[in-house]
Q: What sequence folds into this?
C-alpha cells in the first residue's frame, strides 16, 4: 500500500492552519469538481483532494495521521503499525458516495467514515432507496436502440462496516433516441429495504463515447466532410456517411471551408428528432509530381487570387 | 464479486414521461422534502404549472437537483451560491454551443 502525503495533495504546509486547509480545499474542489472541471483527470483528483481534506480538517484524524506520517514519503510502501489507532477516537463526518483509498481505509476504517447511507431511507420508510449510476454508451445505442451489457459498481457496506463496491452486470434495452444527460429508469432495480417493502429504482444517467465520425451536440450530429477545391467551387454530389446509411450529398457551387449543410431530422432519433450537419473542409491535393505542380501553376496563372486580401497585405 | 442477470431489462427514457412531485424528488435524491422546497424558493428548480394544488416538475429536474446537491456538498456552497453556479454553468454551456456552431 502506498503512503499518501495528504499535505502534498492539498498543497499546504504541514503546519497549515484549519483556515488555510479549508481555503486550499475549496480552491481545489472548484478546480477539479467533475461537474465543473474540464481537466482530464478531474474525477480522480477530486476524490484524492476530498480524502485528504477529510483527514486534515478533522483534528483527531489529522493528529493521528501526523504522528504516523513522520518519516514517510508519498508513494512509499506503507503498513500501519499493529498498535495503530490506540488512543484516538474518530468520529465520522461528511457523507460521501465515493470510496476512499486503501490507505485511508486501513488507517481510519469503518470508524473514520460516516455511513454514506447515513440518514437515508428515513425519507420514505418501508421502501428501498433509489440508486444512481452513470454510463458511457456508444452512439449507435441511441441511433438504433438495442441491448447493451453494462457493468455498474454498486457500493456496499461489508461485514466490518467498510465501504466496498461490487460489480453488477445488467443487460439493458437502451431506448432509441435517448440524449446525453437523460436517464434510463429501471423500476425495482435499486436497493432492497431492510424489512418488508418495495425495492427502490435504479437511475442510469447516459453519456456517450466519442464517435470516430460524428460529433454530438444535444440532439444534433455534426460531420466534418472533406471536399476537393473544385467540388466546393463548382458544386458536386459526393458520397457522405450518415447514421442511417450513405447518401449522395449535393454540394452547392461556391461553397467554402466551414459551409454547413443540414440534413433535417437525420440526427438523434429523439422526439423531436435532431438534425445532421455536414461541415465542409477543403482538402488540397498534394503537389508531389510534375503533373500536379503544372496544374497548380496553371491555376495560379489563370486566377488573380490574394487569399490574404482582408489582412491588408 | 459479480452477479449477472441474463434477461435484458426494458429501459425507458425517464425524462420523456416523468412528472415529479416534491416527494418524488426528495426520495430520488435522498434529501428532505424541505430541501427541495428551498431549491424552488431559490430558483434552482422550476415548477411547471399544472392545475392542482401540488407542485410538479419535469423529469429534467432530477439531474438538476442532484447536480445542485453535489455542488452544495462538495464545494460547501450555500443555496444562493448554488443558484449562481448553475446559472453561470448554463451560460457557459450556451456560449460553448454558440462557439461550436460558428466554427
A:
Amino acid at each position: 500500500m502506498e503512503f499518501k502525503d495528504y499535505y502534498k495533495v492539498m498543497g499546504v504546509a504541514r503546519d497549515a492552519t484549519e483556515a488555510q486547509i479549508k481555503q486550499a480545499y475549496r480552491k481545489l474542489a472548484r478546480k477539479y469538481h467533475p461537474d465543473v472541471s474540464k481537466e482530464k483527470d478531474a474525477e480522480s483528483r477530486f476524490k484524492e483532494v476530498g480524502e485528504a481534506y477529510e483527514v486534515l480538517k478533522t483534528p483527531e484524524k489529522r493528529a493521528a495521521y501526523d504522528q504516523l506520517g513522520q518519516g514517510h514519503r508519498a508513494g512509499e510502501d506503507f503498513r500501519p503499525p499493529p498498535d495503530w489507532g490506540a488512543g484516538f477516537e474518530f468520529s465520522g463526518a461528511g457523507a460521501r458516495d465515493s470510496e476512499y483509498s486503501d490507505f485511508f481505509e486501513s488507517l481510519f476504517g469503518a470508524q473514520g467514515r460516516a455511513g454514506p447511507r447515513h440518514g437515508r431511507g428515513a425519507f420514505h420508510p418501508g421502501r428501498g432507496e433509489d440508486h444512481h449510476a452513470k454510463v458511457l454508451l456508444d452512439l449507435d445505442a441511441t441511433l438504433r436502440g438495442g441491448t447493451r451489457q453494462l457493468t455498474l459498481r454498486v457500493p456496499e457496506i461489508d461485514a466490518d462496516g467498510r465501504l466496498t463496491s461490487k460489480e453488477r452486470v445488467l443487460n439493458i434495452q437502451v431506448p432509441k433516441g435517448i440524449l446525453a444527460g437523460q436517464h434510463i429508469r429501471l423500476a425495482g432495480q435499486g436497493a432492497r429495504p431492510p424489512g418488508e417493502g418495495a425495492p427502490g429504482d435504479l437511475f442510469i444517467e447516459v453519456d456517450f463515447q466519442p464517435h470516430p465520425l460524428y460529433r454530438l451536440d444535444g440532439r444534433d450530429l455534426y460531420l466534418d466532410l472533406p471536399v476537393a477545391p473544385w467540388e466546393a467551387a463548382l458544386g458536386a454530389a459526393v458520397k457522405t456517411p450518415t447514421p442511417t446509411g450513405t447518401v449522395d450529398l449535393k454540394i452547392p457551387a461556391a461553397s467554402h471551408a466551414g459551409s454547413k449543410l443540414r440534413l433535417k431530422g437525420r440526427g438523434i432519433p429523439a422526439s423531436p428528432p435532431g438534425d445532421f450537419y455536414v461541415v465542409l473542409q477543403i482538402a488540397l491535393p498534394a503537389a508531389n509530381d510534375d503533373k500536379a505542380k503544372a496544374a497548380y501553376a496553371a491555376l495560379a496563372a489563370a486566377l488573380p487570387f490574394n487569399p490574404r486580401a482582408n489582412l491588408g497585405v | 464479486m459479480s452477479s449477472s442477470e441474463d434477461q435484458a431489462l426494458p429501459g425507458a427514457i425517464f425524462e420523456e414521461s416523468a412528472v415529479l412531485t416534491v416527494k418524488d424528488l426528495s426520495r430520488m435524491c435522498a434529501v428532505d422534502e424541505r430541501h427541495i422546497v428551498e431549491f424552488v424558493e431559490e430558483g434552482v428548480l422550476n415548477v411547471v404549472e399544472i392545475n392542482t394544488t401540488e407542485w410538479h416538475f419535469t423529469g429534467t429536474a432530477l439531474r438538476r437537483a442532484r447536480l445542485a446537491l453535489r455542488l452544495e456538498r462538495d464545494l460547501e456552497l450555500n443555496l444562493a451560491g448554488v443558484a449562481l453556479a448553475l446559472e453561470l454553468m448554463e451560460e457557459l454551456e450556451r456560449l460553448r454551443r454558440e462557439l461550436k456552431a460558428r466554427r
